[in-house]
User: Fold this.
Amino acid sequence: MKTAAKKRKIPAAAANVLYPVCALGVVLAVWAAVSAAKDIPLLIPQLDEIFAELGHVLGGSETWRAIGLTAGRVAGSFLLSFVFAAALSALGAVFKPLHRVLSPVVTVLQAAPTMAVILIVAVWLDRGEVPLLIGFLICFPLLYNAMHSAIAGVDVGLVEMARVYRIRPLDRLTGLYLPSVLPAVADGCRSAVSLCVKVVIAAEVLAQTAGSIGIEMQRASVVFEIARLMAWTLVAIVMSFLFEGIVAGLKKLWEGRRRWTASK
Assistant:
């Protein structure tokens, strides 16, 4: 019986595709049911209207430029926060007073309302720079906490053993710290990058950043084109999935390379 049950188990690769597709199907079914029940096309358009508008949006001359600029802001703010979080968390693990100084700063950044931060930053910077800084301010605390916790969670016994046997710092980094830290950091990055997409687009809306997904959403909302607004929302969702997929792919690539190196 156990053998038969194992054979019926869905492969992991298929499950990764099947479950999101099922979730999307449920969401679309609920939307279609609500749209049919309310019968208010202006407020809750039918799915065919939304997908038709999505086709028009993707065929627009300025669409791909807006998508590229928004994606560039997301990537830039995320990479900037990743570099600062990696450097400061590593230094904080070595110099404890630095972590004690940074800890309340990180807590304040996490506690500050995102909308208030966007409005304040919009007064100081140009409209194109606001989303970049907002993405950094939101992602940095998440990545810093994830990295610092991962570094602090490295087995103390292994660290002490590496010191006793005088293993080179580079070998400690590649053979001890990175294998222990990277899985947790990768999971933190997946959460951070999806959040980064949301806050960057929100900042584009409030700062009225030209050539962006956010400004296109605002224009659709002002003229009450709900189908167009939903089409741009789908574009933003796909962008978030793509960024998460890149992070997940890099994690799998590193794990595969590590297994290949261990088997040699």
Observations:
- The first helix runs from residue 2 to 7.
- The chain is about 85% helix and 0% strand.
- The two ends are 37 Å apart (CA to CA).
- The domain at 69-263 is CATH 1.10.3720.10 (MetI-like fold).
